[in-house]
Design brief:
It holds the Pfam family zf-MYND. The protein is mainly alpha-helical. The protein is built from 24 helices and two strands. The longest helix has 27 residues. The chain binds zinc ion (3 copies). The site of one zinc ion has 6 residues, from helix 4.
Length: 497
């Protein structure tokens, strides 16, 4: 067995653990017989592979080993700041990566490119030269299943995406990096990104197309969504370009729906030993990353976003959301995936135009408190809060619970049913809402529960601090109301079809 086979088996043969470990050990033993790849060589390989992925020098296994070598050079330990400084000191790698991932390509060209990268076409006559570039510890990533042949390439890409995210998530919204003072060096050595042209070197329009093709990918499409969402958040013009194209443009709604569906299919076919976890590669990762993307797209512009959501959301996203909420409503799931559960409920409210548009807030994803605040502000907009009520109207009903003074019903019958609802009985949350109301005091309570543009999240936050509001209580109330709205939508959808 030659070294490429060994390394390939090492990367792709992870099914049988004993076999996997034996091969890993063998791969390590062989790799030690060659001089380790120099870091400069690794950087050259990483950059040149992405610049010319179909060129004669390009090889996915070599690329993977080079990324592995780059990973090895990272400072050890858990300090994010140190890792970030390390990554930032290689701006040319970041530039090559973003340029590679945003290059406009047809689907066919993309497939062909990935196929080229899967194969090792290196000249094996010089075993020493070939061995040293293939033998550094290959990199793997637990978020990618090492089953497909292209796994090494995908692992390398998701690791490079992580590097980019490490830099981007440290940036202030809309602010770019400054050029180093007094350094006349070429742009390659300067901090990344210094402006929109540097962030998206292929331009906004082509980058959207480039991401669109990558995002279709079964293995790593959701990683692309995560990256695209972060860019949309930092640079709203990019998000606006996606939403401007409307619901039929795949990157807008169909791609996230595709990856959410894949996650839920994986859940439905989970093996008997499966246990819910936040870093499960088949379910949790695609779920979290896809929702992250949809949420961040909003930054691109309220109007194009809500237009896309209302026209396409019902058809494309709503069935997926209903299915997702169904899965996450299981108690162990909803506590583990509380944010995702909430986000899906929230998206459903947006699609059903349940929330007041003017109250949408750009920063809603960065602070959970903001989500609960919006729920409280819009609680009256939900119509009747009896989950099994047949009335679909969102009007503010006159009949309200006299104890909590927040939850309203269309009739005494609905109020009675809701009190002992099987899943979300009002009697469990009512005293908590009342307690929250008392903690806030009458005038603040009115401000919090009345939809108005004059009372913003910032005002709410300082109010909570001043009145020492129990965050857990706020969360519990917010979640409960959001869940009621979600389940009501599910109930109505089920009964209308
Ligand atoms: Zn090769
Ligand atoms: Zn009712
Ligand atoms: Zn009540």
């Amino acid at each position: 067995m030659d070294i490429q086979d060994l390394i390939h088996n090492f990367l792709a043969g992870g099914r049988d653990m004993a076999d996997f470990e034996a091969k890993a050990e063998e791969g390590m033993r062989i790799s030690k017989s060659f001089a380790p790849m120099a870091l400069d060589t690794a950087l050259d390989i990483i950059i040149s592979t992405m610049q010319d992925p179909m060129g004669p020098q390009s090889c996915g296994l070599k690329f993977n080993c080079a990324v592995g070598r780059f990973q090895d050079a990272m400072p050890s330990g858990n300090s994010i700041a140190r890792s970030r400084r390390f990554v930032e000191s290689y701006p040319n790698v970041l530039r090559a990566t973003i340029s590679f991932l945003t290059r406009k390509q047809s689907r066919a060209d993309h497939t062909f490119m990935m196929k080229c990268l899967e194969e090792c076409r290196c000249d094996k006559s010089d075993i020493q030269a070939c061995g040293s570039v293939h033998s550094s510890t290959p990199c793997g990533d637990a978020r990618i299943f090492l089953l497909s042949k292209g796994a090494p390439v995908y692992c390398s890409i998701v690791i490079l995406i992580d590097h980019i995210l490490l830099v981007l998530t440290n940036m202030t919204h809309g602010k770019f990096r400054q050029a180093k003072k007094g350094v006349t060096s070429s742009r390659e050595e300067q901090h990344w990104p210094q402006g929109p042209d540097d962030l998206l070197p292929n331009g906004v329009v082509d980058s959207v197309e480039g991401f669109n093709v990558w995002a279709a990918d079964k293995e790593c499409g959701h990683f692309i969504l995560r990256l695209a969402g972060t860019i949309a958040h930092l640079y709203p013009i990019f998000g606006a370009e996606i939403t401007r194209r409307g619901p039929e443009f795949h990157l807008g709604l169909r791609r996230p729906a595709q990856h959410l569906t894949a996650a839920m299919d994986a859940y439905d076919h989970r093996p008997p030993w499966w246990e819910p976890s936040k870093d499960d590669a088949r379910f949790a990762i695609p779920l979290v990353y896809s929702l992250h993307f949809i949420g961040h797209l909003y930054t691109g512009g309220k109007h194009t976003h809500s237009a896309m959501m209302v026209t396409g959301g019902k058809q494309i996203l709503l069935p997926v959301l209903l299915r997702g909420i169904g899965i996450l409503s299981h108690p162990t799931m909803s506590s583990l995936f509380a944010d995702e559960f909430f986000e899906m409920n929230y998206l459903m409210s947006v699609i059903n135009a349940r929330m007041q548009d003017s109250l949408f807030c750009l920063e809603r994803l960065t602070d959970l408190k903001n989500q609960w605040f919006m729920v409280l502000q819009n609680a009256h907009q939900g119509g009747c809060y009896n989950v099994t009520c047949s009335s679909k109207s969102n009007v503010v009903h006159a009949q309200k619970c006299s104890n909590c003074q927040l939850i309203r019903y269309c009739s005494a019958k609905c109020q009675k049913e809701a009190w002992t609802d099987r899943q979300y009985p009002h009697k469990t949350i009512c005293p908590k809402i009342k307690s929250l109301r008392e903690q806030l005091g009458p005038s603040a309570w009115t401000r919090v529960t009345t939809p108005t543009v004059n009372f913003t999240f910032a005002g709410f936050k300082s109010l909570c601090t001043k009145k020492k509001i129990d965050t857990e209580l706020l969360k519990e109330v917010g979640m409960h109301i959001a869940c009621l709205q979600g389940f009501q939508t599910i109930y109505q959808e089920k009964n209308s079809s």
